[in-house]
Design brief:
The chain is an alpha/beta fold and about 260 residues long. Helices cover about 50% and strands about 15% of the residues. Pfam families: ECH_1. May play a role in fatty acid biosynthesis and insulin sensitivity.
Length: about 260
């Protein structure tokens, strides 16, 4: 146990940053870290003042995945392992389900469940010296749960390349594979990520929530079902006060004033 918080929260005019805070362990996702993340995400989901969430890491790395020392100390007990992976899956799903955009701000390494965290975020900005890998195959433990998020972001062959080789890839390769949105000079990473977060935070929060939910739901549907579903979403969205305000503002050549309804 430790008095040091596993996750640090900072709020800045609609943009909240959660910083993983186990720098000595390269922010490995221990039981405590996962529980702290789960609680923080639940709090942010209910906080109307938060428009956009940034997830970052303290120290030399973004996140090195699961805590292998903790796994070994737990003697790989089935009940403990089941609970750990279920908690990780819950956190990743909570990121996808969060009704606010989530941006991963990546520096150092993001490996195994750390790469899963990047892939689970809606957007990802990475320093030009960042590195990514799903190296479980190298230690006899295939990155099966990280595979879920990776296979929904990368092409199948690129995902399999990472999963089967376990090799570190650089930020430019991660960009080419589709794992991250932008490669930024390390000294500019925080500023660039915050600037983009603020740009998103200027949109209607209701519209962002509607759009994010619809994006992930339609992606799992057939083409015909996706169009049927999103047509209903747009028709319902059009009845919102923010949509009417946005259209009036556009036609009137003025800035919209969002009410979140």
């Amino acid at each position: 146990m430790t008095d040091t918080p596993y996750v640090l929260r900072a709020d800045d005019d609609g943009v909240t940053t959660l910083t993983l805070n186990r720098p000595q362990a390269r922010n490995a996702l221990s039981q405590g870290m996962l529980e702290a993340l789960r609680a923080a995400l639940a709090e942010i989901a209910a906080d109307a003042s938060v428009q956009v969430l940034i997830i970052a890491g303290s120290g030399p790395a973004f996140c090195a995945g699961h805590d292998l020392k903790e796994l070994r100390a737990g003697n790989y007990a089935p009940d403990y392992v089941d609970a750990l992976f279920a908690a990780c899956a819950e956190v990743m799903q909570a990121i996808v389900d969060l009704p606010k955009p989530v941006i991963a701000r990546v520096h150092g390494v993001a490996t195994a469940a750390g790469a899963q965290l990047v892939a689970s975020a809606d957007l990802a900005f990475a320093a030009d010296d960042a590195r990514f890998a799903t190296p479980g195959v190298n230690i006899g433990l295939f990155c099966s749960t990280p595979m879920v998020a990776l296979s929904r972001n990368l092409t199948r062959k690129h995902a399999m390349q990472m999963l089967l080789s376990g090799d570190l890839i650089d930020a430019d390769t991660a960009f080419r594979f589709g794992l991250i949105n932008e490669v930024v000079p390390a000294a500019e990473l925080e500023q660039r990520t915050l600037a983009f977060a603020r740009q998103i935070a200027g949109k209607s929060p209701l519209t962002l929530a509607i759009g994010k939910e619809a994006f992930y739901r339609q992606a799992e549907l057939s083409l015909a079902d996706a169009y049927a579903y999103t047509s209903q979403v747009m028709a319902k969205n059009l009845q919102a006060e923010d949509a009417k305000e946005g259209i009036d503002a556009f036609l009137g050549k003025r800035q919209p004033v969002w009410c979140g309804r």
